[in-house]
Amino acid sequence: NIFLMALPKIIKTEPEARVLLVGTGPLKDETKEIVDSLDLNEYVHFPTIPVSHDHLAYYLNSAEVYVSTSKTDGSSLSLLEAMACGLPLVVSDVPAICEWVTDGENGYLVPRNKVNPISDKVLLLLNNQDTAKRFGQINRNIAIEKADWDKNYLVLESIYKDIDENFHL
């Protein structure tokens, strides 16, 4: 919801910007109320039906920037999916996210609960296509290298075998 607070500044500078909030959860009704109270209904859209995992890549590939302003998070699957789709990122400085994002190298980390840095970084990416494209390419490469389950499963299996052999678990 902190992102929604940053949105009026983004819209003021980029009136063509639109936000698609994909997903369901216990905060959906509250989120809709905030959108309504900030008079953002023209700019923020919610899919009318739940988005299946099979169709998520379609939505991500239609986006220009991935934004996540979580206050806490583990390694976010949606973050990794956005990276795999080659999106530039504006994300909270949550420790688990910092493992994937280096500020200014493949996205922007913003302090949790601060509105202005969110809008500033989103606008920076919307107005600098070279940076956005470079971040997106780096993110795609990171996702291919580090988030490939098939490849990483073999590494993890090898580690467990080594532990078992050396420590007789």
Describe what this molecule looks like in 3D.
The chain is mostly helical. The chain is built from 8 helices and 5 strands; from the N terminus they run αβαβαβαβαβααα. It has helices at residues 2-13, 28-37, 53-61, 77-84, 95-98, 115-126, 129-146, 149-167, and strands spanning 19-20, 44-45, 66-68, 89-92, 107-110. The protein has a 3-stranded parallel sheet with strand order 3-4-5, with helices on both faces. α1 (2-13) packs across α6 and α4 (77-84) packs across α7. The longest helix is centred in the C-terminal third of the chain and has 19 residues, at 149-167. It is globular, with a radius of gyration of 18 Å. The mean pLDDT is 87.
Helix and strand topology:
Elements: H1 2-13, E1 19-20, H2 28-37, E2 44-45, H3 53-61, E3 66-68, H4 77-84, E4 89-92, H5 95-98, E5 107-110, H6 115-126, H7 129-146, H8 149-167
Parallel strand pairs: 1-2, 3-4, 4-5
Helix pairs in contact: 1-6, 4-7
Which labels suit this protein?
169 residues, mainly alpha, 54% helix, 9% strand, globular
The poorly predicted ranges are: none
Strand percentage lies at: 5-15%
Helix content: 40-55%
Please provide the count of β strands. 5
What is the gyration radius calculated from CA atoms?
18 Å
Spatial gap, N to C terminus: 46 Å
Q: Identify the strand order in the major beta sheet.
A: 3-4-5
Label the structural class. mainly alpha
Q: Indicate the multimeric state.
A: single chain
Overall mean pLDDT score? Answer: 87
Structural shape: globular
Biggest sheet descriptor: 3 strands, parallel
Order of helices and strands: HEHEHEHEHEHHH
* Count of helical regions: 8
